[in-house]
């Protein structure tokens, strides 16, 4: 199938000034300035197929926002090729944005002072949506998002969760084939988050809408996306299935022991299970120790057996490593590709 | 065609919000009137000490001022984007603008319009009639058409200059206070340019062509034939200013860096 | 005290950072002074002096009025209004300083920057281009120094007053604009007060505005000397003290309102 997003060697550089320190330095800055060129996005390439839901993750400053802004036509790339919905976003901006929907969690698309439906009406005009198309599509959207009762209220009177649902409806007003969501669930409570996730899933199933999602909340990504693209310092460091990421990096298990004796030490523990591949870390109390081991039944059973035989315990937990921990590990270790 | 219908949609929306804050609107109109009065006071005070300004009489200067108010009102209603840098660049509102399928400048004009300013047209025309009456000016059948052309030309000059100033923000992300200060310079186009020396006259005619918003077009209605050439250039200078500014704007948008986040 | 001085320093540094502002400012002030120079030349026509002010004095008046404006002018009215609207003022209340003093210090930081890097070099350039007379008497310079300090104080007080009024009005933009226009006209920036008809001068004696521009500029051009100058400065002092009253009152009301409404 044709790629809906095709990015090749995409790069964006920013010129940044560094100011000299102190009064004298500031005075010198008035006449000559130090500046350097920093690549915010460093030659990235990837493709997205229609109907995919892709999680786009990275730390602050990893180049997420900058690359999303290039994909949506807001910023002009320094070099490289970008084609979205078969168009060059920046060159054919006005025609292009007609085919996408954008939600910036921290920036409102709606007009602050006027009722939500007035905003919708304005946007309907702006996107040139016919009455019939609006009716067919939006009635469903309004119902699924349960925003019918909010339509005659001005945006400034809505709660964050209510506003966010309206924002989402506004972004879908022209029934775009591709939806960019930048931190759509930031600051929302669990119920609203669930509602939004279900709605997005439904949109994806019903209209085959492609969704590119950036978020700090990995549970959004776990709930919605099969695929993740991970950025670090302007480069793609992982692009693949979320499940694969988990099995490559999250193959281990963690076993947490709470001992009756608080004088337990790492030395005592490693003496008990010296031939097993295990790493010990102390937990948040000094009688709690966490063992990280490979996801292997015989190792896990052997470890538990030996520890329990040697020391009295009051509690034991077996945990799988969370995606969040996996990602933190990847960033800390800085490993590229697994 | 689509742009026109969007324009009216925005105007309707604007009226609705404005009518909810009626007190604001009254204060706004009052402060406009005050602003217009201040300049009139200046002229009146000055002419209590002198008869002529380089051969121009009090009523002629007042007439020029009245004319100036008309294009200025149109500029104020639609192109007064002095807070562009702060609102759209620093706060990153331009991101939102750029995700919509309408020309970015047109959207910003729609969002920032202040239709109250159009009251200045009434003040301006009233002042022109007052001064024109005292000067015994006659009105031909074609004068209203020329007037409209001159006014549109003048408004386009103002619009062009301020859009160009707004464009600076695309290249330099620092705050600038050029905009407020430029309003002062705009005032100098209201006085006969022959009082200035050549450098300033050149600046006001060709660099920051504010003279085409006041003295040049008014010279036509005042029957000052020595300035007719300049007077009839007004619409062309207006078109040129506006076109240049739109071209620079389109280039500027590609240099937009986005708000830092 | 140290924190207020630190604030002045920070603002000073901030001003240095905005160099586009700096260059464009110099250009625009020169154009302003130049245009007014010619405008006044035309107004004088052939006559030697109007209302006891000679052409050279008038040119000096215009130049110094604009250069002094660079020092006393600031945007704290707009800043205060903005911070009130965005609800940031509530946070300022829990900080260990007086918000209004802090704002004044920010204004002073900006003013000092412009005075040193802008007005002084600007004045020298303007003096090379236009016929401007500097007073030889040390007394005049002394009086002028005192007078511009008070123009800063009074202008800032008026700005604070307009800014704080945002608490009581829904939208303060119109008022701020109106204030700016009134100050331009009644402070003597555009026209020396002595040019106005007698009744208007009488009226303006009961208003603080001429303390901002007219008084320092007249002192600088030797238009006021000796007892006239001391009287003018006394006028400034009285207004600086009088304006404290409404500011404190409004601020008190504003605080109460903030407590009740919760920002």
TrEMBL record, chain A:
InterPro entries named in the record: AAA+_ATPase (IPR003593), ABC_transporter-like_ATP-bd (IPR003439), ABC_transporter_ATP-binding (IPR050763), P-loop_NTPase (IPR027417)
UniProt entry keywords in alphabetical sequence: ATP-binding, Nucleotide-binding, Transport
Protein name, UniProt field: ATP-binding cassette domain-containing protein
Organism: Aquibacillus koreensis
SUPFAM superfamilies on file: P-loop containing nucleoside triphosphate hydrolases
Superkingdom, natural source: Bacteria
Molecular function in Gene Ontology: ATP binding; ATP hydrolysis activity
Keyword Nucleotide-binding: yes
Domain named ABC transporter: residues: 25-258
Entry-linked SMART domains: AAA
TrEMBL record, chain B:
Transmembrane segments: 25-49, 61-82, 115-133, 145-171, 199-221, 227-251
Residues of the signal peptide: none
UniProt keyword Membrane present: yes
Domain of life according to the entry: Bacteria
Keyword set includes Translocase: no
Alphabetized UniProt keyword annotations: Membrane, Transmembrane, Transmembrane helix
Name of the protein: ABC-2 family transporter protein
Native species: Aquibacillus koreensis
Taxonomic classification: Bacteria, Bacillati, Bacillota, Bacilli, Bacillales
UniProtKB/TrEMBL annotation, chain C:
Source organism per UniProt: Aquibacillus koreensis
InterPro entries: ABC-2_transporter-like
Key words, A-Z: Membrane, Transmembrane, Transmembrane helix
Pfam families in UniProt: ABC2_membrane_6
Protein known as: ABC-2 family transporter protein
Membrane spanning residue stretches: 21-40, 52-72, 112-134, 140-169, 181-199, 233-254
PANTHER family documented for this protein: SLR1174 PROTEIN, SLR1174 PROTEIN-RELATED
